[in-house]
Amino acid sequence: MDRAQKEKLVDELGQIFESSGVVVVAHYEGMTVAEMQDLRAQMREAGGSVRVAKNKLAKIALEGKPCASIADYLTGMTVLSYSEDPVAAAKVVDKYAKANDKLVILGGAMGENALDVAGVKAVAQMPSREELIASIVGCIGAPASNIAGAIGAPASNIASILSTIEEKAA
Predict the structure, then answer these.
(1) Is the pLDDT of residue 157 over 70?
(2) Got the DSSP string for 24-57?
């Protein structure tokens, strides 16, 4: 790698560290190419990415970034997993590490907050952005579905509902 390529890589890593909701650092020693491709595919499905970079260049890219605390984890054969969703990367890495002993979670960062192994596992247990949106939509849609069910009911049910509403309003 020449100097220009290294500078470009440091810039790319810097943008990743700034824009990611969560960054997880793990050792991947002993993983096969197929296993790494499987991890990348699972991460892509969840909306995240996996990156292997030289630790020295990653440390340079971390300088002045909110997640600079992960620099201590960058030793040995490390892989960076990241996503804009603050939970997605942690979920995928935690799930993959349970199934594959060769991937060992070291820690990570969620914005300025440093995460140890337990922290990454705790973040992985949280609901993802999509799950939260689905539950909110379900809560919002429930009253509308109740009204739709009441309208479809026989006329006597509607009359009793309307009288109940009148009583509450009075």
Answers:
(1) no
(2) EEEE-TT--HHHHHHHHHHHHHTTEEEE---HHH
